[in-house]
Amino acid sequence: MPLLLDTGPIYALADADDAWHDLVLEFLDGRDEALLVPVTVLPEVAYLLRSRLGEKVERQFVGSLARRELAIEPLQPGDVERTEKLLERYPDLGFVDCSVVAMAERLRLAGIVTTDRRHFAQVRPAHRPAFDLLP
Predict the structure, then answer these.
(1) pTM
(2) Measured in whole angstroms, how far is the alpha carbon of residue 12 from the centre of its chain?
(3) What pLDDT digit, counting tens, does each position of 63-87 carry?
(4) Strand partners, 4
(5) Where would you tag: which of 50, 64, 85, 119 has the fewest CB atoms within 10 A of its CB?
(6) What is the CATH number of the domain that holds 24?
């Protein structure tokens, strides 16, 4: 089953000083699951990488996408509709987090790889009682 990555773990991988860096690196090391990045997460990751670590790191991230080291999960029309409903129910989450949830529900995934425990722990997905928040 693929792993769906939120913004935080991708940023943590790039920033060796991030508190989550070692944990995320250890979690992903040696795993053979496909790593899916929701298309809605990409601008957020790119912005954080460029603003905090510089344009070179942002280019390296884009290069990893071009080399298909991370698979980009597209936003489907049904995901947008579900995102709207999730925004009504969980106004603290915002568009990006709600779109991640919508994609995880569509893909029927048990877990989300995220550093954002506060927001994702609130969510009661449509297909299971709660998400496994990884790592």
Answers:
(1) 0.95
(2) 12
(3) 999 999 999 999 999 999 999 999 9
(4) 36
(5) 85
(6) 3.40.50.1010
